[in-house]
Design a protein that fits this description.
The complex is a heterodimer of chains A (365) and B (439). With 365 residues, chain A is an alpha/beta fold. Chain A has helices spanning 2-13, 27-32, 61-71, 88-99, 119-140, 146-168, 177-186, 192-203, 228-235, 263-273, 284-298, 312-316, 318-326, 345-364; strands spanning 16-20, 35-39, 80-84, 107-110, 215-221, 238-245, 302-308, 332-337. Chain A contains 14 helices and eight strands. In chain A, strand 3, helix 4 (88-99) and strand 4 (107-110) form a beta-alpha-beta unit. The longest helix of chain A has 23 residues, at 146-168. Chain A is globular. The N and C termini of chain A lie far apart (45 Å). In chain A, 53% of the residues are buried. Chain B has 439 residues and is an alpha/beta fold. Chain B has one domain. Chain B has 19 helices and eight strands. In chain B, helix 4 (94-103) packs across helix 6, helix 5 crosses helix 6 (125-136) and helix 8 (189-210) crosses helix 15. The termini of chain B are far apart. The chains are: A alpha/beta (365), B alpha/beta (439). The interface between A and B is large, with 54 and 47 residues.
Chain lengths: 365, 439
């Protein structure tokens, strides 16, 4: 599907494509420059080539799989790769693949400031965004005018609003989790305007009253892979009522300040208005407050922490998540995975038992 | 801060510790006279070691009385400490503390405590050691002073930021961050401006917590001392260009402690003058770190603290010495860049260009240069399960170093602190097979 989209966008609109490593990046810039962003979350499953062996087995499967994918020639359809500085491992992948072999086409980096929103970080982000835009202009063949940027910002604000409405109105949406996430995750590679159309189509199906009958849960973690996790959850009698996956809900900007006359300022505002993420060094207390708010709005009766093995940013917050929700009497299930193609039997059993526990909790209440 | 606590702090450092040291020396003399001289493949021990032990023991001993007496900060090893030093902070280095626990093989015990609280065993073993120590309320150094400030710089890894976020949560103290964006090629002006601005923020925040504004002249003085310390440490390391090297790379791992934890102080520099002079004297007399140095090796990455002695003995028995390590070199190479004429601007530049904050071509250049400067015959790259930024890329680095320099290079998988991640039998077999290539 991704290859088809890349080909279609190139043939019909002359758009070039950029593969993007997780997690956060200024997608608005790429859209403004008429560049299709195609995200590379691994891909899941076994590594597609021997180059995964150039990275030690104690490094996460996103990095190992991505190196194998890029070096194995599987990303030839794109014209460049963007490596956001998400974590130590993706940062090292950026220099490994581009400097020591694996990727020969143009490569771009985006450096995140860590920690709180502060004036120095804002100035740095704006300079970094302008630097990135300058390097992307050469690839796209377009100049980034303020009009283009403002239009892209408006488009992405609408996309975020639609995604937020779908996630926040989850219980009133008749889609099962597998279909909902398939829709949301198409945003990782579809042209944004086309993606907005399908999001708005789904929004039109929102009911007035709840239609989901299972136990609502909050899910936080890296990426919903394997997708079988969602089906298992639904079959066991639970559904995702609140989402903090890095790949999904954690990238939905809900509370950005109103657009400024200066689109660069709007872009910086949107950057800092994103939900708290450990990869950007968000304060733990701020993140826990955010997760509690999500759980409360979704009426979650339990929390599934679905982390990628060896993913330090996610793993570091697990104790705080456990303590935060234990203090409120919400059970927490921690699942670790490695981008397997299938959910393990043990994971299925644990999810089923957890859903059963939550159903019992409703009875008790 | 109270006058009583301050008095206790001063008495601990100036009176109690010297008395205890004198007592220890006396007991040591009695013990040694009974034991007699030791054997093994190593050359005569460095006389400076005694002073090193005293220096570090003094630091930790006086630290027990620091909170309430002077401002206290817990600091990452790559943090621009000059500002804190100029403000009179007593600094504690959780990494150094964790390494100390690692040498004593306390990591499994502390890690169990951390794991029971939900920290994954896949997290850095320094972190698990240190958090386990904190959560259990025990430490082999007696007591660590409670910090008023946590000071974290991301130039060695992002892990320290996650680690210090957790410390801030548990200790409920402010965390000041100096974020150094990763350098691909050369640092851009906006990167350096960002770091410089954060250092200026640090001066204000740390000054407010300490209760006194930063004295610009004092900062110049501390910066000069820190620069001198790095230069002296570099001279100590450079002594190993001689054949035989007057000490071992393993010695270097231990003697790095002052430049990490006491950088910017006169006791640190005084110690390295003593060490440098002793090393140069050994070079002049042809005294080596090994009785017989047959092969010279380069080590990349952190040491395997819990097996340092075992590793060095295995190698030394067959005449192998680590004459250079990229880890110890980092403190010599970067620190000389700070400039008393521009303490903040030069610190921004210097602390952004730490080895782990730069791309792999830069790392390869350093390894090549060290290999040539120290005339090594082979290299061991420690693939450290607990340090991803240091380890990712080593598979390629191994291949390139070996091909370009025509030397055997071994990639050895271990962990800097957790013995549970080290398979001794197959690991030592690999070391033995590596050494056989030189026969």
């Amino acid at each position: 599907m991704r290859s088809e989209e890349i080909r279609t966008q190139r043939e019909r609109h002359g758009r070039r494509a950029v593969a993007v490593l997780p997690i956060h990046y200024p997608k608005e810039l790429l859209t403004a420059l008429d560049l299709l962003s195609v995200e590379l979350w691994g891909p899941p499953g076994p590594p597609r080539g021997d180059d995964a062996g150039r990275v030690q087995s104690y490094v996460c499967s996103v990095v190992r799989n991505a190196l194998a994918f890029l070096a194995g020639g599987h990303a030839e359809a794109v014209d460049g790769v963007l490596f956001p500085h998400t974590c130590d491992s993706i940062q090292q992948l950026a220099t490994l693949a581009t400097d020591l072999g694996g990727w020969r086409k143009p490569a771009f980096t985006f450096l995140h400031p860590r920690g709180a929103d502060r004036p120095s970080a804002r100035r740095f982000v704006e300079a970094e965004l302008r630097r990135l835009a300058g390097t992307l202009e050469a690839l796209s063949g377009h100049l980034l005018t303020e009009e283009r940027l403002a239009a892209a910002l408006a488009l992405h604000a609408r996309i975020d609003a639609a995604r937020a409405a779908l996630l926040d109105g989850r219980s009133r949406l008749a889609l099962d989790d597998t279909r909902l996430y398939a829709l949301l995750r198409r945003g990782e590679w579809r042209w944004p305007a086309d993606h907005l159309v399908e999001l708005e189509g789904a929004l039109a199906t929102l009911s007035e009253r709840p239609v989901q009958r299972g136990a609502p849960v909050l899910v936080t973690g890296y990426v919903p892979e394997p997708a079988a996790l969602l089906a298992t959850l639904n079959e066991a009698g639970a559904f995702v009522a609140a989402d903090d996956y890095a790949a999904v809900g954690r990238r939905v900007v809900r509370a950005a300040p109103p657009p400024s006359a200066d689109p660069w300022r709007t872009l910086v505002d949107r950057y800092f208005a994103a939900p708290p993420c450990p990869t950007r060094g968000a304060d733990v207390a701020v993140r826990m407050h955010h997760l509690l708010g999500l759980a409360e709005r979704g009426g979650a009766r339990g929390v599934v922490v679905h982390v990628l093995k060896f993913c330090e940013p996610e793993l570091f917050d697990v104790p705080a998540i456990r303590e935060t929700f234990a203090a409120r009497g919400l059970p927490v299930l921690v699942l670790e995975g490695e981008l397997e193609g299938q959910l393990s039997g043990q994971a299925v059993t644990r999810l089923e038992a957890f859903a059963e526990l939550l159903q019992g909790a409703r009875g008790a209440a | 801060m109270t006058a009583l606590r301050r008095a206790q702090y001063e008495v601990a450092g100036r009176v109690a510790f010297p008395l205890l040291t004198a007592l220890d020396r006396w007991q040591h003399r009695l013990t040694r006279s009974r034991k007699g001289p030791g054997g093994g493949p190593f050359g005569p021990p460095l006389e400076s070691v005694k002073r090193l032990k005293e220096l570090m023991s003094h630091h930790y001993f006086q630290g027990r009385y620091a909170d309430g007496a002077v401002p206290v900060a817990w600091v990452t090893s790559g943090f621009p400490v000059e500002v804190l030093r100029a403000l009179g902070y007593h600094t504690v280095y959780p990494e150094n503390h964790a390494a100390l626990c690692g040498v004593q093989r306390l990591t499994p015990e502390y890690s169990d405590v951390a794991e029971a609280r939900g920290y994954s065993r896949d997290l850095c073993s320094y972190v698990r050691t240190d958090l386990g120590s904190l959560l259990s309320g025990t430490t082999p150094v007696g007591r660590l002073p409670r910090p008023q400030l946590l000071a974290c710089c991301t130039n060695i890894c992002q892990t320290v930021l996650y680690w210090y976020r957790e410390l801030a949560r548990h200790l409920d103290v402010p965390l000041v961050l100096v974020d150094t964006p990763f350098v691909h090629g050369a640092a851009s002006p906006h990167q350096l401006a960002y770091v410089k601005e954060q250092l200026e923020e640090l001066c204000l925040v740390a000054g407010r917590i300490s209760g006194a504004p930063l004295d610009a002249e004092r900062l110049v003085e501390v910066t000069r001392t820190a620069q001198e310390g790095s230069r002296l440490w570099g001279e100590c390391l450079a002594a190993s260009r001689a054949r035989p090297a007057p000490w071992t790379g393993i010695d270097g791992f231990f003697h790095i402690a002052p430049i990490v934890t006491l950088r910017g102080t006169e006791p640190c520099n005084g110690y390295y003058r003593l060490l440098r002079d002793e090393l140069n004297d050994r070079v002049a007399r042809g005294v080596g770190g090994l009785k017989q140095e047959r092969h010279r090796l380069l080590w990349d990455n952190l040491p395997v603290w819990f097996a340092v002695r075992r590793f060095s003995t295995l190698l030394a028995e067959r005449g192998f010495n680590f004459v250079s390590t990229s880890y110890t070199n980092a403190w010599a190479e970067a620190g000389v860049g700070i400039d008393p004429n521009d303490p903040i601007g030069s610190a921004a530049r210097t602390y952004t260009h730490i080895i782990l904050n730069q791309d792999l071509p830069n790392r390869l250049d350093i390894l090549r240069r060290l290999s040539r400067d120290y005339a090594v015959d082979g290299a061991i790259l420690h693939s450290d399960r607990s340090c991803k930024p240091y380890s990712i890329g080593q598979v390629d680095l191994r291949e390139r170093l070996s091909r370009e320099l025509g030397i055997p290079v071994l990639l050895l998988e271990a962990d800097h602190n957790d013995p549970r991640s080290w398979a001794a039998e197959p690991g030592e077999n690999r070391l033995a097979a590596f050494m056989e290539q030189f026969e």
